[in-house]
Amino acid sequence: MSSEEESEIDISNLTSKIDVEQNKSVRYRTRRRAIDLVEMKEETDCQDHLLQDFKDLQNMSRRVLSSDIIIELLGNGENSDLSDFSDGSDNNEEDELDNLLAMNEVYENFDFQNIEDDIDWNIDNIDDDIVVETENVDRVLENPTTSYKYHSVRKENIKWDAKPLTTREIVFTAVPEKDFPSAPLPPIEYFLKYFSTISFDDMAHFTNLFAQQNNTRNWTDTNVSEMKVFIGIHLYIGIIGFPRVIMYWQPDYRIDIIADNMTKNRFFELRTNFHVQDNLLNPTDNSDKFFKVRPLYNSIKKRCNELHTEKNLCIDEQMVPFKGRLGLKQYMRGKPSPWGIKLYLLCGAGGMVYDLLLYQGSNTELDQETKAHFGLGGSVVLKLCEQLKKNRHILYFDNFFTSYNLLNALQDQKIYAAGTARVNRFANPPLMTDKHLRKLGRGASFEVTGSNEHEGRTNQIGIIKWFDNKGVVLASNFLTSGNTDEVNRWDKKEKKYITLERPEIVKLYNKSMGGVDLHDQLISYFRIFIRSRKWTLRMVTHSFDMALTNSWMEYRNDATHCNILKKMDLLLFKQRVAKTLISLGRSQMYTPERKKKVGRPSSSPSPPLIPIKSRKPRNIDDPTPYNEVRYDCNNHFAIFDDRQHTTRCNAGTLIMGLFPVINTFTFDMEASVKFANTLSKSSMQLAFSEC
Questions:
Q1: Three-state DSSP class for 520?
Q2: Which of 10, 299, 362, 406 is the most buried (most CB within 10 A)?
Q3: What is the dihedral of CA 156, 159, 160, 165, to 10 degrees?
Q4: What is the C-alpha separation between 301 and 295, in angstroms, rounded?
């Protein structure tokens, strides 16, 4: 057989195979089409259902389902397509195969020619102008929402008008003036006010207790003095900021005030066992994930609630940096430290913290009924506002918290509030789109007012949309456009500054909203950063940073009231608190005796000691200690003996002679007169200056 004949046979075989495959493909597509049509025929009972399904699919292709629509489609969870998981088995391959074989018999007898004639595909009258915007957790509910404490509004009860919010005259209740001291207190006194309920004695006690429970080897009990030195060293670590803690004790980088007051091993030993709570008191059904650090933050919260609250306040999130393995860890895009543990803070415009809330998911200290009606953001705001007095404050927050019901509830509590807003939380207000505002030019704005009736009075919530580079939506219960002002903005096209008209609410929001971010920024300058896998240690050091930053702001306010021009900055204030803690602890601290080695003495002779020649250190007097250290009545009194002249010991303590008192505190008049006549005037001044 020639090669040409062989090639013709191969081509004919290949052609026949292609025809077979094409026939299989046609049969498969025909059968797949029949399956689709049968399923469509079974699921639709009439032509209206088909049209409605097509309409829903068409709308769904360009919209995002809201939570209300999802709940409606699910039937509130009552009609589930899932069977009970406790019955039946997961091995259903045989049942599925039987069903497919049974369906195959139906498809073979099915009339594919007339199926399309039974369906009317006319969809010309479908209205496709419906666009549903996305809603978030806290929204205007359509169900009855009468809370036990706060009133929430039904969606259908809100009436929108395309007009500005009627600006009412705000008359604040007279606030009692703060009692300022005649002079600023020492920095250490401001700092210690934040640890009134958890003392250094408690820290030492629970640290010793945990070391005993953990069977720490060669553990020496700590005390109050050592705890002060321990915390003071942490504050210095935040100031200096070496990348590794061990460097503070290494010869090349040694920091004397740290290394001279605590050894490296003792520091790490205390840090490993540091506790402020007894772990055995943790109940088995405990839902508080911050149980181990709760006493510290409760003490700080108590002091923050005692502060004189200013008029302009804001609420926002704060992140404690942490990237270890932790269920509480959160991610917040846009934050300087996006990974960490989340806190909600109530701050003033200047950064002072007045209240705080630790976030722990569903176990956060929030009222569940309030959370169901106002969502997470709204319930956080209402929780932090519980301590606020009526008709005294203006509150600002961002669009995570803002909702119509929240502003309405705050208006009932006589707390004025404003914030950026998401339009889908306000029951579809008739706002102008960004496209139309862009045509009007930068600086254009449009505002609407929503009103509702409650207990015989009308509450009004205003929404304004201001177009700068893009549309910005703000909502308020007291002001929208108000008295506008002018601001300069850079125009990229014209390459020059242009003047825009800015609503008053935008100016107030920009001025007062950054309090939490300012407080977080001040902490970040000298943050106590230690690499550790323990999230509890990170929360403990953050509590020290937060308390010290708030203490510095208290000092600044007092110094301003006392007309002190030269104030301590945050660095000097933190350094002074750290040095005072170390000095107070060192003056009260004793060195425990070392245990002797156990066993027989070595028979080998000890190596001879080689004398090391060293230069005699310069005799440099220590700087004058701070007043809070001088007058703490610990180890600063003069020592009396029978020497002829006043001298100093190596520790700098004054040794006064010619005073005939030995181990007694009885007063001898004749000896006192003799002592006074003996000392010169200069020696007397020196003695009293050192005491």
A1: helix
A2: 406
A3: -140
A4: 10
pLDDT digits (tens, 9 = 90+) for 28-82: 666 666 556 545 554 444 455 445 555 554 555 444 455 555 445 444 444 433 3
Q: Give the dihedral of Cα atoms 178, 183, 188, 190; nearest 10 deg.
A: 10
Helix/strand number for the chain, H first, E second: 20, 15
**DSSP assignment, residue 350?**
T
In degrees and rounded to multiples of 5, residue 217 shows phi and psi of -75, 140
Distance (Å, rounded) from C-alpha 196 to C-alpha 302? 9
Query: What one-character DSSP code corresponds to residue 497?
Result: E
The structure tokens listed for 243 are 């990348």
Taking the C-alpha atoms of residue 134 and residue 137, their distance in angstroms, rounded to an integer, is 10
- Three-state SS letters, 443-462: CCEEEEEEEEEECCEEEEEE
In CATH, what number does 160-165+284-520 get? 3.90.350
The model's pLDDT over 120-176, given as tens digits with 9 standing for 90+, comes to 333 333 333 333 333 344 444 444 444 457 877 888 788 888 888 887 777 777 777
Please tell me the total number of residues recorded for the chain in this structure. Answer: 691
- Cα dihedral angle (234, 236, 239, 244), rounded to 10 degrees? -60
C-alpha 109: how far from its chain's center? Answer: 66
Domain edges within the chain: 3-79+91-118, 160-165+284-520, 187-283+556-588, 637-690
For 159, the 3-state DSSP assignment is strand
